[in-house]
Design goal:
This protein has helices at 5-20, 61-73, 91-103, 120-128, 156-173, 193-206, 224-237, 249-261, 281-289, 303-314, 335-338; strands spanning 30-32, 49-55, 80-86, 108-111, 133-137, 150-153, 181-187, 212-219, 243-246, 273-278, 294-297, 322-324, 329-331. The chain is an alpha/beta fold. It folds into two domains: 5-152 and 300-325, Response regulator (Rossmann fold); 156-298, Rossmann fold, CATH 3.40.50.2300. It has a seven-stranded parallel β-sheet with strand order 1-3-2-4-5-6-12, sandwiched between helices. A six-stranded mixed β-sheet has the order 8-7-9-10-11-13, sandwiched between helices. β7 (181-187), α6 and β8 (212-219) form a beta-alpha-beta unit. The protein starts with a helix and ends in a 6-residue tail after the last helix. Bound molecules: beta-D-galactofuranose. The site of beta-D-galactofuranose (GZL) has 14 residues, from α2 and β10.
Length: 344
């Protein structure tokens, strides 16, 4: 679908007036409606695919990498005109952004949904406007799956199950398969497919180990600050924690701060086991040091696949409903093979 300069100009004016209240501005490839910063290079092509991207926030290292992956892949040089909005964890802001994209008649809408519920109405509006919606990273619960064209992201249930299977094997090696194991979980954003999927996946493995005691699940909101607060509270409540599951690296970083302040080491023989998710470089360095025992990868670099799928749709190709990113499980035994390649 070719988008003429006239439409881009109208799009830019609409964005400018709608967001900043001031007049049109000259060419750029990415307009960040959150900060009002214009992008980098002037537009060279007059045939651009316009994409409205509703990103849920900037809460973690992972999220920043995911945003950068999309901006790099959906650049003007690659044939795209990207309008980026950061909803700062608020679903209402995502609804507002999607409705703004609809009013600007973009060619595609991409959403990283902060939580699973509540999307039926706004996605019906996008469908009525004839604008395909692609879900990125997190998934949604809708009555009618035709509301979105495709989901590109991670299999969160599999990630949770991988962490549980690793713990089974680790306890077996330690000769602790029959011991009572007290487990606390610091969970990400409540109601997100990441929090819910990882909890269900790990929970399925825990259910087949009757000696595993899930003594607490607490909110960490995927942030380092909240992860630290929650870990400090759990340390005050429990003095016999054997396993700490953090549903992302940023919460693990916060938990480690609280553990250090309480004089509690993790990862070594007799220490609490620390399990994390995402596989950021900083976390893999802690895996290498033996502070984090295992880190289940959640790959944020989905921008290129997103661009391929949009180009495929433009070319009328058959597109799958679901695309899962390739993911690994990092431990002290294999981390050296991958740590140098981490770009986030
Ligand atoms: C998972 C993603 C999660 C990451 C967190 O796909 O949605 O959100 O695990 C991020 O780091 O905040």
């Amino acid at each position: 679908m070719l988008i003429k300069k006239s439409k881009i100009a109208a799009l830019l004016t609409a964005v400018a007036v709608a967001i900043t209240g001031c007049g049109p501005f000259t060419g750029f490839s990415v307009y960040d409606v959150t900060s009002g910063d214009s992008g980098i290079e002037t537009m060279s092509d007059d045939a651009l695919i316009s994409v409205g991207f509703s990103q849920l926030g900037s809460e973690s290292t992972w999220r920043s990498a995911n945003t950068e992956s999309v901006k790099a892949a959906l650049s003007t040089n690659n044939g795209f005109f990207l309008i980026y909005d950061n909803a700062r964890q608020k679903q209402e802001k995502q609804f507002k952004a999607v409705r703004s994209f609809i009013s600007q008649r973009v060619d595609y809408i991409v959403i990283c949904p902060v939580i699973q519920e509540g999307w039926d109405v706004v996605l019906t509006e996008a469908r009525d406007a004839g604008i395909p919606v692609i879900l990125l990273d997190r998934n949604i619960s809708v009555n009618d799956e035709s509301m979105y064209t495709s989901f590109i992201g991670e299999d969160m249930y599999a990630e949770g199950a991988s962490a549980g299977k690793w713990l089974e094997e680790h306890l077996e090696k330690q000769g602790k398969s029959e011991d009572d194991i007290n487990i606390v979980v610091i969970e990400g954003t409540s109601g997100s497919s990441a929090q819910e999927g990882r909890a269900r996946g790990f929970g399925a493995i825990a259910a087949r180990n009757m000696n595993w005691k899930m003594i607490a699940s607490a909110k960490g909101e995927f942030t380092q600050t909240k992860g630290k607060e929650t870990m400090a509270r759990l340390l005050r409540e429990f003095d016999d924690i054997d396993v700490i599951v953090c549903q992302n690296d940023d919460m693990a970083f916060g938990a480690i701060e609280a553990l250090n302040e309480a004089g509690v080491k993790t990862g070594g023989a007799g220490d609490p086991i620390l399990i994390s998710f995402d596989g950021t470089r900083k976390a893999l360095e802690l895996v290498k040091e033996g502070v984090i025992n295992v880190d289940v990868e959640c790959n944020p670099n989905s921008g290129e696949l997103l661009a391929q799928i949009i180009n495929g749709l433009e070319a009328g190709k058959e597109i799958k409903k679901t695309y899962y990113m390739e993911e690994k499980v990092f431990t002290k035994e294999n981390v050296d093979e991958y740590i140098e390649d981490r770009n986030y």
